[in-house]
Amino acid sequence: MKKSALSFLLVTALLGSLLTACSGNSDKNNSVPPSATSSASASASPSAEASESPEADTSPEASGSAEVGESPNAETDASPSESSEPSTQPEASKKPEESKQPAPSKKPSEPSKKPDPSKSPEPSKKPEPSKKPEPSEKPEPSEKPAAPTTGDIVSAMLEQVEQPMLMDMSAEQMETSYGIDPKLVEDFTVKAPLMNVKTNEIAVFKVKKAKDVAAVKKGMEKRAEDVQKMFESYLPDQYENAKNYKIVTQGNYVLFLISESADDLEKAFKDSLK
Q: Distance (Å, rounded) from C-alpha 78 to C-alpha 69?
């Protein structure tokens, strides 16, 4: 840039001196005063020095203009004011700043890994079949209520049918009165009159085995005959009552009755076994 600026200045100065020389030739005919000659020589010297600078020798334009400047008209007619004041160098235009290149956009994140084709997907587990509900256990049939005792049966009968005052016989008394072996029966209850003026009597036997029912009945018949003999000549009405005795069998239970209300007592006996 500096070399081109200096070359421009030199060319401008030489052109100015050429113009001056041309105008000087026209004025030479009109007589040039001696002061002009001296000033021209003075102005020529600095221009010549400028032409001798190494930068001027390098450019062809400067060498051509130097040859023109060596003409005698240039030495005599150049005005010192025009040659001595060099023109201001034009400021070199600033280079445009390089636009910043946009930053490269970030690479997209790594693509999701492709599934490995070699690995076969695990088969989904088949849902297990639902278990069939287990049938609810059938409730066991409730145990049958225990069979009533002979004492319970007699008590139920007396609650329904009123009878005169009666008392319980012991096993020994029962064996003596009825002639029944206690080993044949599982349970028994015998109620006889408290006073010996009545023939009313209630007896319930539960035999162990059905085959022994006949032996129990035989003992009851014996007991009826004995009561009849006791009241045959003593109290005729009670004798008649004893003659109307009853023997009833219900399963393993055997009932013996001497009473005016024998039918009602029989019904109460059967109801208690239902």
A: 10
**Cα 84 → chain centroid:** 102
Which residues make Cβ contacts (< 8 Å) with residue 161, sequence separation at least 6? 259, 261, 264, 265, 268
For the beta sheet containing 246-250, the strands, ordered from the edge strand earlier in sequence to the opposite edge, are 166-168, 185-193, 201-207, 253-258, 246-250
Alpha carbon separation from 213 to 6, 159, 186 (Å, rounded):
166, 27, 12
| Count, residues in the chain | 274
Residue 125 in any domain: the answer is: no
Residue 30 has pLDDT above 70, yes or no: no
Give the residue numbers spanning the domain of 226. Answer: 150-272
pTM of the model: 0.49
Contact 267, 250 (CB under 8 A): no
Question: pLDDT band at 74, cuts 50/70/90?
Answer: very low
Q: How far apart are CA 139 and CA 249, in angstroms?
A: 35
Does residue 70 fall inside a structural domain? Answer: yes
Q: Are strands 185-193 and 246-250 parallel, antiparallel or unpaired?
A: unpaired
